[in-house]
Amino acid sequence: MKENYMNYMGNTPMVKLTRMVPQSKANIYIKLEGCNPGGSKKARVSYQMILDAEKNGLLKPGTRASLIEPTGGNTGLGLTLMAINRGYDITLVIPDNYSKQNINLLRGYGARVLLSDSTTGSDSHIRLVKEIVSENKNYIWLDQLSNPSNPMAHYNFTGKEILDQVKHIDYFISAVGSGGTITGAGKRLKEANDKTIVVAMQPQGCDILNGVSVPHKIQGASIGLVSSVFDTKIVDQCINVSYSEAVNTARDLVKKEGLYLGISSCANVAVSLKLAETIGEGKTIVVESADFGYQYEDFYKEVFHGTNSASL
Ligand SMILES: Cc1ncc(COP(=O)(O)O)c(C=O)c1O
Asked: Does 312 map to a domain?
């Protein structure tokens, strides 16, 4: 038995899609990062960033130092759980069009949540944190967009676990927000097999490698900048996906596979299905799934009841 809930992080399951993919097509495996404490892959990043900051002397447990971070919600959940466990206060800045359930939950956990005006661009939360930090030097911004602990968590753990679970990997598909997952896990997979092709899921109309984003509804992906932790050279291909493709894929994942995944995960799976059509028999695709569907009520309203005419 472990003393602290966060210590149950990692060793997340990998499942194979068995009903959505015809036998003769590729083998598609999904890494279920929603099984982490806090419900997402960002538990790993939060844990690594806080422990590294404590090691470097930037943070001292129990001091109630004030952390601040812009987040779509998942990093916020991971950091808030860590803040509770290690004795810090936390302020999170979230775009006002993001999951209401997450915002309520974070406030319930005791985080201070500020909302940024999403109509001003997909990086509105980042700009607001910059403003706040420039006016108040007491805040400690661990900054997952520039903190090497972010990709390191995925190199040391996510990538290693994937290699332990699937021996030969032809393609690895990930969403790109900070770029931490694709950079860290992608590097680890390529070191093990330099023929592994790393694919970025790209919301339609965006240009991830150049930090160009249009308004889109695939939360957490394509945030309108190339962060300093994102090593764009790791990416071999970007494959476009529309929101309505993510909606259709979500419906199939629930009904055919019993998998209730987050929006970016469904978009990643949509990309894997496109790939499976073209790459030939017997190839293996690993898809990262950042989280489950529980925090995306509006998305699942469209999946189960919607007209599915969304074009973003
Ligand atoms: C749901 C979801 N998908 C994808 C991403 C992108 O992951 P990364 O920041 O590692 O690029 C995030 C990041 O917050 C996320 O919350």
From this structure: no
79 and 174 within one domain: no
Verify that 194 and 127 share a domain, yes or no: no
Please give all residues whose beta carbon lies within 6 A of any atom in ligand 1, as ranges. 42, 72, 74-75, 175-181, 219-221, 262, 264, 290-291
Distance of CA 23 from the midpoint of ligand 1 (Å): 30
Nearest-atom number in ligand 1 for the CA of 178 is 9
Listed in sequence order, the residues at least 6 apart from 233 whose beta carbon sits closer than 8 Å to its beta carbon are none
Q: Is the pLDDT of residue 233 over 80?
A: yes
Let me know whether 202 and 124 are in one domain: no
Question: Per-residue pLDDT for 245 more than 80?
Answer: yes
Side chain identity at residue 2, one-letter code: K
User: From atom 13 of ligand 1, which residue's Cα is the shortest distance away?
Assistant: 220
For residue 307, what pLDDT band results from cuts at 50, 70 and 90? low
Q: Is 236 helix (H, G, I), strand (E, B) or coil?
A: coil
Q: Is the same domain home to 179 and 300?
A: yes
pLDDT in tens, 84-100: 999 999 999 999 988 88
Residue 161 phi/psi, 5-degree rounding, is: -60, -40
CA 225 to chain centre: 15
State the pairing for strand pair 171-175/197-203. parallel
> Ligand 1 center to residue 87 CA distance, Å?
26
- Do 28 and 66 have their domain in common? no
Copy the structure tokens of residue 17: 């899609």
